[in-house]
Amino acid sequence: MTATSTKPLSELLAQTEFSDDDIVRLLGLTDPEECEALRQRAFDVTTEKTGNNVYLRGLIEVSNICTANCRYCGIRKDNHTVERYTLTEESIVACALHALHEGYGSIAIQAGERRDPKWIAWISRLLERIHKETVCEELPTGLGVTLSLGEQTYEVYKEWAEASGNPTGLRYLLRIESSNPRLFAELHSTPGKHEKILEHRYQALRDLRRAGYQVGTGVMIGLPGQTLEDLMRDIRTFGEMGADMIGMGPYITSNGADMTALGMMEKRPLMQLALNMISTTRLVMPDINIAAATALETLEPNGRVRGIRHGCNVIMPNITPQTTRASYQLYDNKAGTEVGPESNVLVERNIVEMTGRTLGLNLLGSSRRWAARTA
C-alpha cells in the first residue's frame, strides 16, 4: 500500500480528495468500528452537501417486455417462464396521480428495453399526458420524471425530453453495471440486434446529457469476478462522466437469468460491501443524488434505511399495481412484490424515525450537482 492508504482512518475520512488507494481501502473496510466511522462521515457529508431531505420517486414498472438478453436479468428475452405484461395508459396515469397526491414530487418510469417506433410514440404520449394531468399549485411544472428505458438514440431521448414538459425535473437512469470491459461483456454477451457494447452505453450517456437530462448511472456490487479495484474504477467513471445521480445495488441472482451457476456473495459481506460503496461514492462525489436500491431491502429488512444512513438521499417506493409486480423480477425474492402501495407508508415512517431525515414532499429533488452545472 502507499503512504496515503495507511494513514489513520480519521485523517483519511477528513479528506475531500481521494487517491485510488484511498478508495480501495474504504471499499474494503470490514472492522465494525471503521465501517461505522465511514458511515457517519458519509451521512454528515450528505447532510452538508445535499440537505436533510430524502426525496421520493414513485416507481412504475410499466412493462416487462424486453428485446435484450442480459445474462443477469430475470426479464431477459430468453426467459420464457415469466408472464409478460404492459400496463395500460390509464393504469400508469392513475399511479402517477397517486404519487402526486402522496406528495412524492417525482415518479420513475421503468421497463424492459424496446426501440420500436410504436413503443417510442406510446412513451411520448404517456409523458405528455402525465405532465398535463399533474401540473398543480404544489408542483407548477408537474411531476418530475425519471426514465429508465435503456439505450436509445439521441433523437428518441430528445423526443421524450420534450414530451415530458418539465426540463427542471427530467432525469434518465442508464446503468453501466460495470466499467470493467471484461465484466461488462460477460454480463451482456448476447450477440444480435441489440448486442450490448460498453462504448455504446457511454455514448448513450453522452447523448442524454446533450438532450438535457439529469444523467444517472450505476453498477452492480458484488458481481462474480469483481474486485475492489473494479469498484474503485466504477466510482472514477461516475466522476469522469459527470453523473448527476447514481442508482446501484448489490448483485442478487435470478433463476430466470443465465448466471445462477456462478452464485453470489454471502448476504452479510455483500451488504457491507454495498454500503461501503454507497458511502465511498458519497465522499468522492458529495453533491450527487444517490438512490437506496430495493435490492438492499431484499438482502435485509430496513435495508433502504441503512442505505440512507450510509449516504443515500433518494428512495423509489414501488407504486406499480400489485397484480403485475411479481412479473417484474429482475432478481430473486425482490422486496415489495407482495404488498400494495400502503406499505410505502411504513418505509417512509421508518426513514424519518430511524435516520433523522425528513421527507422532501412536493419537491422535485433535483441533483445539486446538476443545479450547479446548469445555473
Layout of helices and strands:
Layout: H1 9-13, H2 20-27, H3 32-50, E1 53-63, H4 89-101, E2 105-111, H5 117-134, E3 144-148, H6 154-164, E4 170-173, H7 181-187, H8 198-210, E5 214-217, E6 220-221, H9 228-240, E7 245-250, H10 267-284, E8 289-292, H11 294-299, H12 303-309, E9 314-315, H13 322-325, H14 343-355, E10 358-359, H15 368-374
Helix pairs in contact: 2-9, 3-10, 4-5, 5-6, 12-14
In DSSP terms (H or I, runs of 4 or more residues), the helix count works out at: 15
**From the helix content, strand content and strand pairing, which structural class follows?**
alpha/beta
For the largest beta-sheet, the strand count, sense and barrel status come to: 8 strands, parallel, barrel
Q: Do you know the CATH architecture?
A: Alpha-Beta Barrel
Global outline: globular
Binding site for [4Fe-4S] cluster: 66, 70, 73
Organism: Sutterella megalosphaeroides
Cofactor: [4Fe-4S] cluster
GO molecular function, one term: transferase activity
